[in-house]
Please model this.
Amino acid sequence: MLKKFLKATVFAVSLSMAGGMMIAPSLAEVVYNRGSAAEPESLDPHKTSTVYEAHVLRDMFLGLVTEDAKSEVIPGAAESWTVSDDGTVYTFKLRSGATWSDGSPVTAEDFVYAFQRLQDPKTAAEYASMLQKVKNAKEVNAGKMKPEELGVKAIDANTLEITLVAPTPYFLEVLTHQSTYPVSKAAIEKFGADWVKPGNLVSNGAYTLAEWVPNDHIKLVKNPKFYDAANVKIDVVNYIPTEDRSSAMKRYEAGELDSYDDLPTEQLTDLKAKFGDQVRVAPYLGTYYYAIKTSKAPWDNVELRNAVSMAIDRDFLAEKVWSNSMAPAYSMVPSGIEGYTTSPAAFAEESQIDREDAAKKILEKLGYGPDKPLKMEIRYNTSENHKNTAVAIQEQLKPLGIEVTLLNTDTKTHYGHLEQKGDFDVARAGWIADYNDPETFLEISRKADGHNYSDYDSPKFEELMNAATAAGGKPEERFKLLSEAEKVLVDDVGNIPLLYYNYHNIVSPKLAGFEDNVMDRHPSRFISKE
Amino acid sequence: MLLYVFRRLLTAIPTLFVIVTLAFFLIRVAPGGPFNQERGLSPEVKANLEAQFGLGDPLWLQYWHYLQNLLHGNFGPSYNLPDFTVGELFAKGLPISIQLGASALTLALLIGSTLGIIAALNQNKAGDYAVIATATAGSTIPTFVIAPVIQLLFGLTWKLLPIGGWGDGALINKIGPVLTLALPQIAIVARLMRGSMIESLRSHHIRTARALGLSDWSIVVKHALRGALLPIVSYAGPAAAALLTGSIIVETIFAIPGVGRYFVDAALNRDYTLVMGTVVVIAIFTILFNLIVDILYAVVDPRVRYD
Model:
């Protein structure tokens, strides 16, 4: 019996372990194995919601405008464009002769269809808001108007006209976002929801979809019909999600990945020592902040909010908690937006000791002390780094007599609570720019904005933001007004900016053209591999 | 026996119904919804999404629709991976988890049982101590420690195995995850087998067999092993259900596209349909393997009859 058992076992092991063989690329192919920290959620540009699919979609689709290796706006599907004198009508001339990967021409009608689909409530696009500066977009998305009433029309096959509600100087930046890419009406009508499957997906970018095995890889192959195919050096891009950062580092070291878009921050110092210039840490347009409930006592007192903000040692957080993978923040808008001057907190230039002394005086003046300690609860969503940040702040505030308690919930519970305007003192939040403009960081503090978790309500701030919108046709004046609005917000401590995000990539020396930029966007079409 | 199997399968239906009902309402009780995220959505967009997935309907109606779809084998779309239905995700991931789990289980039963028998036959000798020590270590070292060590040694240092990835199912990509899954199981099976074999060797019929002058081989294989297998069979049922439905730790560390990762991710993402799909799959596997264990009991011990 034992013999039979052994034989059966060996047979079973062989059978269950046997599978396909590793597919080796042909020798002539240049393959870029691009590591990613998470799986894209969808390859439908109108279902997109994370940066992980943004990278893939950027390789597959070409919007009206696009970005070069340094993330500067360059012509995309449109060769050129004009803007009306009042800044509200954009007329794009499409690249003549450009085709979809199935050989059919890319026309202005494709963009009209795509933009209408993005706003159509039936599509339920998470990023419908990206194009809501377009006339009637909000109404269409809310189901109050028909998609045909959207302010987008095809003048002829190669000419597209977009009418905006108001002048929007960053509109071209918006058009680099993946949700604004065109989609093939023919493919969607033919395959329905399955149009995104390999073999069905038709795209107009440098690459087309060949395979998608969830949680394993997305294989893109060079699109020979792409207008600039001659300059695309990589033949195959494999997007490889590797959620476990430490495993990703080993995979990179073993040569299984040519790049990876995240790093285990706790290992950053060691990784820099080991891999040198291959580790790329540089500013990324994003702010890590604490929302503070400005509508609730005692947090409705600006002096108290300012005291808490001053007492937090941001240098310590950046260096010790985040291993310099983040930078200390004193303003809501991070630096790096060309032409914009940020408005940091007044205490930014003071030493931490002076700040703490000033904070102590304010607290004493407000009657807080050993007999009446200030109680403060910090809510944060599950993450080791968020926890460590909150614990460090708890320790930093203790000498000032502030009793901090911590409350951790998972991400869905955390943001569900904030969105429903639940009760809290201080809550962790973050904001990453979708487009390169300060307004994206300031809008979230407007009274009516759903992201205004702090319940910040300042007529002066609203007035300046409105004035900035009205000055849309004058970029310099607009930036000046936005900067003033930011100063009001920062002085009011509408929220507490703590850290600016840095992106952290690891990039093989075999790759060329992977340029650092504040948007952390690196289209594969500009990358080459030895 | 057939009648017994039929009866058991029939009773599985209300069990599954209760599990599905409980899971459906429990996941809805959890705070936060599938569309709460760091980058919050506007009320209009959220309403559009909820309308698309039927989340605006009353809960009882959603439940009724879910049951109807389930009866037709339709698990619904995934909320967080909208390009796939839950059925498609399982169709892609489950065979991978099953391959790894079956390999690990087979290895565990084969090696664990052999080690357990060796230890039992050498009770209180060097061989026994070696097996006990190894088994204790094996069952206490967690997989999140074993996996990186295997990656480091076999992948980076000796360059014998890939660090991670499924590699279209290549044999070499399976070795690391299978070893990681199997090692703790080997240890557990070895300890179980040692104990039950010692007990079996002390039983009256074995003493009689020895008195009759049967060879050691004959005594162990023909007479002691059958009885000693019962605890292993009991253990193997739930272990099989757990192993075949994937391991989140092993699949995450080795970047394996199995279904183990969905179990926790779906719950954290409030991906209601995917949560329900995982619950149904685990429940079916558990019911099925408990039934197999009961049938095997009768095969291993003829005194057990169900009819």
